[in-house]
Amino acid sequence: MSDPVVRSFITKLVCSKGGRVEYSRLAGEVELPDQQLREILEEPGQVRFLVRPQGDSTWVLALSAVRICVRKECEGCPRLHLCKLNLRWKCRVRSCKYSHDILSEQNRKVLKDHELCGLNENELRVLLFQNDPFLLPDVCNAYNKGVRNCNQQDDCPKLHICRHFLKGECRFPQCKKSHNLLEPKALALLLAEGVDDKMAWNIQTICDYKAAMMLEDLGASSNFKPAAGPAKATTKSEGEARPQQDSIVRPFSKLVLDQDVKTAHVAKSPQNAEKGKEKIDEICLHYLWQFCKNKSDCNMIHYDLPYRWQIQTGDGWKDLAKREEIEKAYSDPSITMYQANPASIAKSLLDLDIDFKTMTSNASAVRRLSTPSSVTKPAKFVMTTKWLWYWKNDLGQWIEYGKQSQQDGTCQGSILSSDVLENVFLSDPTGSIQFNAGPQQYEINFKDMTQRNLVYQTLREVRRRPKFVSAEDIKTKKGHTSASAPTPVPAPTPVPAPTPVPTPTPAPAPTPTSPAAPTPARPLVYGLPSTPSYPGTWDPLALPAIGYKAVKLNQLSYEYMEIEKLFQKTMSNYVIHKIRRIQNPSLWQVYQWQKEQMKKKRRGQNVEEKLLFHGTSLSSLEAICNDNFDWRICGTNGTVLGKGSYFARDAQYSHNYCRQDAKEKIMFVAQVLVGDFTVGNPTYTRPPPKSFGVLNCYDSCVDKIADPSIFVIFEKHQIYPAYMIHYSEKENKCILS
User: Fold this and answer.
1) Residues 6+ away with beta carbon under 8 Å from 116
2) Number of CB atoms found within 10 A of residue 565's CB
3) Vertex 538 angle, CA 535 and 539, to 5°
4) Phi, psi for 552 (deg, rounded to 5)
5) Of the candidates 146, 451, 513, 617, which lies 20 to 30 Å from 368 by C-alpha distance?
6) pTM of the model
7) Distance (Å, rounded) from C-alpha 173 to C-alpha 212?
8) In angstroms, rounded to a whole number, what is the distance separating the alpha carbons of residues 262 and 207?
9) At what angle do helices 34-41 and 23-30 cross, to 10 degrees?
């Protein structure tokens, strides 16, 4: 039997990441032997985790039998007593008769019985939402009586879902009622109640699993298809296919036992039988270019264009006929609504109107599948998708970033180009970036797709649209690379071409000085040298296209000894077990770009840069290594100097924020562009302006000007997570005399 503490820790870890986590990430964070971790996840009699394959990955979801009681009070109840509306962030009653305290004496007892004492409120909320149907929107009673008898149909404010399916009690292999929570109407109701796309996918997966288990217990075959709703559906933001129910009940040991599963990653085997079934929603570059060696076993989509427009119907996703016409309209940033045939009353798949802002056609979801972004592949891949970024000026014109022009025809503005924005966007699609254009300072918010002037607070709309490529263009590119193609191709070097808005022809960007070599594909930040420069100490074989590699340092290396020396200044009673260098090409290039921006702001003067420490919880390690420090996620321990990410000169200070109950602790060492700083304030959400100009702001905040020991950084691009130190306290030996 596994240790309850370990089970609780894994549950907390999974819930902190939104209710599910990739097996490879989980294995890397818990650092248990693979066999032991597998045994914990599939331990008989402990329904705590659900493990299922999805494409090339294996996902772990958190399960629990804990439920919320529908009554206000009941003696000795084994359920939690909490306000349902409060868990949805919707309770507005000052003196609510239902409890808002998850740590009440009765609730603590229930959590202890379910081994959930270590969960905070947000983690418990995630666990409850994806396991307790009581928290979901109400199910329509009329729909569940007879054969879909609801008179309101699409206007009904309740879920048209089989109520027994949500409870895991549906006994019908061919149920006539819908089992699909990811269809547009049901998903819209879930989103309105605070359930995001990721959580909706989790709930669907868990309900499918319970339905399959019910039929298996009844002696029916678990290999069935639902009668209502498509076999696969896709959430708008993540593009994850709804799992088919016959793939859920397969034991975890059968999924990974024959694979070389290590603590760092799950090996991807071409022979994996699931690979041919589960598709990744991305068009295969090799097939489109000329030939895919994987043929029918390829887990990507084989299609004749680099884009594919589809609409969701009751029978799944269906291709739209006028694909080039739709793509051409979508490539124009000034077009929000595509109108195929205004005169047509009875719309078919040949002439549907599409709202590009909501990606819907009437009440049906629409999606655009495409090849990978051009910034994630070397220039020789000519079938990638070139994304262009635009902002809207006062005349209602859409101007591409990096091509701003004044009335006299001269160019002005920042070096912020579409490629730079695309790189930063891919590293954090919900983040933001600040930049200068002449004397003005701006911030682009990717989540809201807006550009805000930081002084005047004016807002402008921002749009990300693909560069249009016709079917004829694709024919000329087939079998060619960027060096041999007979016509201009969407490679990192911009070529003057017709654009959706009248803009002056840009000067060519720097071209790569060396041909494409068999090096790992990785995104480049254009505006910096076209061949990215990495520190000489980095391992050239550990430069992934996306994400990071952690490289263990040699204890005899100068690099190791310098970090050890910095650490031991205030941590002499602790011993270092290992130091790992974080090699994240995307974050490094953005960090270097930020340094250049700050240097230009200082008229060529160097920017002060420091190696600083940061202590955090184990659950934040992967997020930091992949996506950098984000105070909204990692900086929850205090805001006395402002709402930003906190770093310390002394390791001893950061040690206080590491997980204290762990025998081996982990601390970050970050490269930080501190620049010009001033004393912080709890109200700051960004550095304050300097006294001699509102447009000229400080770069960071500190605890004191003279010999500062605490630094607060508000812009994450000023940070690069450089190292992870694994350490523990020295053992005190007792000597008897």
Assistant:
1) 8, 11, 64, 66, 124, 127
2) 9
3) 150
4) -75, 130
5) 451
6) 0.40
7) 9
8) 30
9) 120
Paired strand residues for 105: none
Locate 316 and state its tokens.
């799944």
Query: Of the candidates 442, 352, 338, 439, which has an alpha carbon nearest to the alpha carbon of residue 389?
Result: 442
What 3-state DSSP class applies to 9?
A: helix
Q: Which of 46, 58, 65 has the alpha carbon at shortest distance from 7? A: 46
Looking at the predicted structure, is the pLDDT value of residue 342 above 70? no
Rg (CA), the chain: 27
- Label each residue of 522-549 as H, E or C: CCCCECECCCCCCCCCCCCCCCCCCCCE
DSSP state of 336: -
- Reduce the DSSP state of residue 275 to 3 states and report it: helix
Tell me the three-class secondary structure of 18-83, residue by residue: CCEEEHHHHHHHHCCCHHHHHHHHCCCCCCCEEEEEECCEEEEEECCCCCECCCCCCCCCCCECCC
What is the phi/psi pair of residue 441, to 5°? Answer: -115, 135
How far from chain centre, in Å, is Cα 111? 30
Which of 120-124, 234-238, 466-470, 647-651 has the least mean pLDDT? 234-238
Q: What is the Cβ-side half-sphere exposure of residue 57, based on CA atoms within 13 angstroms?
A: 16
Contact 235, 201 (CB under 8 A): yes
Using pLDDT thresholds of 50, 70 and 90, give the confidence band for residue 633: low
Rounded Cα–Cα distance for residues 66 and 114 (Å): 7
Residue matched to tokens 């090409």:
585
Collapsing DSSP states into helix, strand and coil, what is residue 487?
coil
CA atoms within 13 A on the CB side of 601: 21
What percent of the chain is predicted at pLDDT more than 70? 78
13: left (phi over 0), alpha (psi -120 to 50) or beta: alpha
Whether the pLDDT of residue 511 is over 50: the answer is: no
**String of b and e for 519-554 (b: at least 16 CB within 10 Å)?**
eebbbbbbbbebebeeeeeeeeeebeeeebbbbebe
Q: Locate tokens 């809207």: which residue?
A: 392
Q: Is the dihedral of CA 448, 454, 459, 460 positive or negative?
A: negative
Q: Which residue has the tokens 């290590």?
A: 262
pLDDT digits (tens, 9 = 90+) for 388-403: 999 998 888 999 988 7
116: how many CB neighbours lie within 10 A of its CB? 24
CA count, 13 A, side-chain hemisphere, 77:
17
Q: How many other CB atoms are there within 10 angstroms of residue 730's CB atom? A: 10
CA atoms of 708 and 677, how far apart (whole Å): 10
User: What is the C-alpha separation between 365 and 236, in angstroms, rounded?
Assistant: 8
Alpha-carbon separation of residue 597 from 514, 526, 591 (angstroms): 26, 13, 10
Q: How many CA atoms lie within 13 A of 255 on its CB side?
A: 24
What is the per-residue pLDDT across 483-501, written as a single tens digit (0 to 9) for each? 444 444 333 333 333 333 3
Tens of pLDDT, residue by residue over 669-692, are 999 999 999 999 888 888 988 865
Instruction: Give long-range contacts, CB 8 A cutoff, 24+ apart: 252-257.
Output: 252/38, 252/41, 252/42, 252/51, 252/58, 253/38, 253/42, 255/51, 255/53, 255/58, 256/23, 256/38, 256/58, 257/38
Q: What is the DSSP string of 286-307?
A: HHHHT--TTGGG-SSB--SSSE
Q: Which amino acid is at 510?
A: P
- Distance, in Å, from the CA atom of 167 to the CA atom of 347, rounded to the nearest integer, reads 38
Question: Tokens 């589809």 sit at which residue?
Answer: 310
Q: What is the DSSP letter of 234?
A: B
Give 118-130 pLDDT, tens digit per residue: 888 888 989 999 9
